[in-house]
Amino acid sequence: MKKQKRPRASASASTRCSSDDLMTPAAKKLHLDNSTKLMGTVSKLFNKKEHSDLVVTFPKSRTELYLHRGLICESSDFFGALCKDELSGEELFTVDESDDEELLTEIFQGCYFIEMKAMVKDKSKIVPMIRLAQKYQFHQLTFHLITYLLESMDIKDNLFQYLDLGSGNDSLSRQVRQKLG
Description:
Layout: H1 19-22, H2 35-44, E1 54-58, E2 63-67, H3 69-75, H4 77-83, E3 91-94, H5 101-110, H6 117-121, H7 126-135, H8 139-152, H9 155-165, H10 171-180
Parallel strand pairs: 1-3
Antiparallel strand pairs: 1-2
Helix pairs in contact: 3-4, 7-8, 9-10
């Protein structure tokens, strides 16, 4: 058997493959399910100074979180607007002194596919977390937190928080009042 070299493929216009070629019925499709791998990679980026371009500081503890604008600004309209005009360099932001550091840190972790542990361990923290998510305009997260709240609402544990949450005239308040019935 004689070894032969394969001719090298060239990227000339006549042999270049376009995305339209890949979508034809005759073309085989390659589906890569890397969502778990991607989530693992993204979660490793949380609070890593290397490659970070957004630093959030908690004034009481002086703790700094090293975040990534691409993830945070896509998740939060507040941070999206804050970073909108800045095209390069590191953004620095100090949160309000009254913001709960543990809960806000978990909100940021949620942008990196990290489970929110405080909320699961202590259901009394879900309402303050919803308030923080609303304040910083994490709309998708707010929706998921409200859904979680309505599904796992335990009046014995959180009645006063629920009453406070149900005191407004927005959609959430109406849903809470309906649930309290």
